Amino acid sequence: MTFRWYGPEMDSIPLRYIKQIPGMNGVVSSLMEMQAGADWPEDKIQSLKKQVNDAGLSLEVIESVNVHEDIKLGRSTRDKYIQNYINTIHKLGRIGVKVICYNFMPVFDWTRTDLAYCLPDGSTTMRYQQSVVDQIKDPQQFANEIQKRTQGYEMAGWEPERMAEIKSLLRAYKEVSHQDLFNNLIYFLKAIMPACHEAEIKMAIHPDDPGWDIFGLPRVVNSAEGIRKLLDTVNDPCNCLTFCTGSLGSRADNDLPAIAREFCSRGRIPFAHIRNLKKIDGENDFFESAHVSSCGSFDMFEIVKALYESGFDGYIRPDHGRMIWDEQGRAGYGLYDRALGAVYINGLWEAIEKG
Ligand code: DNO
After folding, report:
1. In Å, how far are 57, 298, 321, 353 from 255, measured between CA atoms?
2. How far apart are CA 113 and CA 106, in angstroms?
3. 320 is catalytic
4. Which residues of 308-327 are buried (b: 16+ CB within 10 A; e: fewer)?
5. Which atom of ligand 1 is nearest to the CA of 103?
6. What is residue 6's DSSP assignment?
7. Which 3 state secondary structure label does DSSP give 194?
8. Residue 116, Cβ neighbours under 10 Å: how many?
9. Domains in the chain, ordered, with CATH?
């Protein structure tokens, strides 16, 4: 069981608190200050590891090493950024990292239209409404608005330098089809697989969130079919999936336990993000509920059981939580509700194991 932690400067939660969550073994972290495409400095990696280990926690999953847009766009400059990525893989391997979680979503990583939607019990949570996105004429303005509502925290995957270029990136992606994006992903994976083997690192792609195209940008990792095509085209044990229930479950046609069973039994799920969503009005409007099955739309027992029965032996983390008990913090990444989520998932696991 792991917990996402944004590092000493970007996270207000002390590692000590994380260690105090029952059944917590490690953190999932990153060098947040690194721009996409950077070659990560060894001393910074080592200092992150030392801090985490000194707190009695492991650091075996990095989320994320972000992929430069030139790689996703298939620009001629991509090889330079791929080489930096390879260098970073080697350095992470040397400190014992086993999994890198990354995504291949053009421009926007995960997207929400409301970061503090009020629930009847007084807690707040994140919500996505397609009807709001459909009315947005200027994605740049939308990104600025969302960033104003983060209480000073940077949205994960919404790096300022990428956000500053939204307009020109949107223009560049007009030429990129779904198949082009897929081909660019394959080119990237084929180039980095040898380094992954040497470093003993699995690349676990994060599914698109939500699981469909937004702002006219292509997205290719959001269904069992898309994942199958990706894992088959580069049929390598280091080419893997982050099984994220919230992202995949945003689509009503995704059968979460079936996806877990298919790819976990093939040894291709080294990392799982477990959370629940509540669909509000059709499939394109949802909010992030508490993890417990009765609070949302997913059967969490069946999901965890599918992982257990397919031999899951990777890393798992509770995913976005609500803000409860008047906590202030990074949307989705407060302490309390995620801690409840971790204990709940461990409880499901124990009951399934002993049952
Ligand atoms: C959001 C996260 C994503 C994820 C990236 C992986 O909360 O799940 O930002 O870390 O897509 O690269």
Report:
1. 33, 10, 22, 23
2. 18
3. yes
4. bebebebbbbbbbbbbbeeb
5. 12
6. -
7. helix
8. 15
9. 2-354 (3.20.20.150)
Q: Which pTM was predicted?
A: 0.97
Contact 208 CB / ligand 1 (< 6 Å)? no
Mention every residue, 6+ apart, whose C-beta is less than 8 A from residue 347: none
The verdict on whether 90 is a catalytic residue reads no
pLDDT tens digit sequence for 33-47: 999 999 999 999 999
Q: How far is the CA of 241 from the centre of ligand 1 (A)?
A: 13
Please tell me which residue in 6, 273, 291, 336 is annotated as part of the active site. 273
Those residues whose C-beta lies under 8 Å from the C-beta of residue 355, and which sit 6 or more positions away, are: none
State whether the beta carbon of 288 lies less than 6 angstroms from ligand 1.
no
Residue with the smallest CA separation from ligand 1 atom 12 is 102
Phi, psi angle pair for 243, to nearest 5°: -80, 100
| Tokens encoding 227 | 């994942």
Which H/E stretch holds residue 66?
none
Question: In 10 A of CB 252, how many CB atoms?
Answer: 12
Q: Are 270 and 98 in contact (CB under 8 A)?
A: yes
CA pair distance 351, 301, nearest whole angstrom:
10
The overall average pLDDT reported for the chain is 96
Report how far residue 259's alpha carbon sits from residue 247's, in angstroms, rounded to the nearest whole number.
12
Question: Could you say which of 244, 264, 291, 336 is catalytic?
Answer: 244
Helices 178-199 and 224-233: crossing angle, nearest 10°? 50
Decide: 109 in ligand 1 pocket, CB within 6 A. Answer: yes
| Cα distance between residue 269 and residue 315, in whole Å | 9
Question: What is the rounded CA–CA span in Å between residue 177 and residue 73?
Answer: 10
- The per-residue pLDDT for range 238-285, each reduced to its tens digit, is 999 999 999 999 999 999 999 999 999 999 999 999 999 999 976 699
CA pair distance 19, 59, nearest whole angstrom: 13
- Active site annotation includes 240: no
Cα 146 from Cα 54, distance rounded (Å): 35
CA–CA distance from 227 to each of 207, 213, 244 (Å)?
9, 16, 12
Helical segments of 55-115, H only: 69-73, 78-94
Are 138 and 308 contacting, i.e. CB atoms less than 8 angstroms apart?
A: no
- Mean pLDDT of the region 156-175: 89
In the residue annotation, 315 being an active-site residue is answered as no
